[in-house]
């Protein structure tokens, strides 16, 4: 008898995909012989290629936001031939719920979402207020329940991704980052909006504190092409001769994985790179302004979540509705340094 096949349809955001990984750990524990494939957008697929539970990553061919019913029907015919016994639909939209239904997958698990009755036949409902993201996705591994207690949440596996030594060596060679010198990674960007970004001058101030402690430290500035300007501002504020690598937009997501895995510590806004660092169990300092640090915290053995918890936060807005962004501006480099410094190992210069 062939092993059962399970399809997981990935969230569309990198951070959400990372926080959904514990669901796969639970599915593997419940179905040790199953073949687990993940269907993901191309921008998110590298996350799943670093998950040990995944047999194959399938990339969605659809344009963002478009229904493309004919294309979804054709793709569903391809999935039908793969013989999936169950599908877990993590995006909360009708567009992705259509695919396993059209593919004739008999068990279709997901949250209520937008008009998905019939498309989802194992229907879950979220709690009020919403549960943290890891618990939100992990709950799909079990039967629908009205509420998930604190003890059950505490027992959930943490997000876990893996990077090989060969991948780390290759990205070091390509970028010129020295293997013998310490590396700290910064992630100054955030896809959601400007309100989530710690000011570039604060990242620069933190880098200066790191270099004052150990001038041999290398600083890697990571992000997408959208983050190049912020990363350039950080680099420009640092002393001449400092080993600063502005890699925003010039490394792939897979290379960013390897650089993070290589790092002694990571400082990041609430972003996909933060959650990658957490899943790779790197020491991490997470910076929260307009978002809730309890909703999507890091899970590293060494982790600090910093939030000023102002009366106006978490507002969950893309841009500060009050125009001052105090939740991030008033988070000083000295405050962040207090959390980061104890995480850094002592290196010989």
From TrEMBL:
Keyword annotations: Glycosyltransferase, Transferase
Pfam families xrefs: Glyco_transf_9 (PF01075)
InterPro entries: Glyco_trans_9 (IPR002201), LPS_LOS_Heptosyltrfase (IPR051199), RfaF (IPR011910)
Top enzyme category: transferase
Keyword presence, Electron transport: no
Catalytic activity: an L-alpha-D-Hep-(1->5)-[alpha-Kdo-(2->4)]-alpha-Kdo-(2->6)-lipid A + ADP-L-glycero-beta-D-manno-heptose = an L-alpha-D-Hep-(1->3)-L-alpha-D-Hep-(1->5)-[alpha-Kdo-(2->4)]-alpha-Kdo-(2->6)-lipid A + ADP + H(+)
Listed EC numbers: 2.4.99.24
Superkingdom as given in the UniProt entry: Bacteria
Matches recorded under Gene3D superfamilies: Glycogen Phosphorylase B
Keyword set includes Transferase: yes
Family membership: Belongs to the glycosyltransferase 9 family.
UniProt cross-references to NCBIfam families, sorted A to Z: heptsyl_trn_II
PANTHER family found in the cross-reference section: ADP-HEPTOSE--LPS HEPTOSYLTRANSFERASE 2, TETRAACYLDISACCHARIDE 4'-KINASE-RELATED
Name of the featured protein: lipopolysaccharide heptosyltransferase II
Source organism: Duganella aceris
Lineage: Bacteria, Pseudomonadati, Pseudomonadota, Betaproteobacteria, Burkholderiales
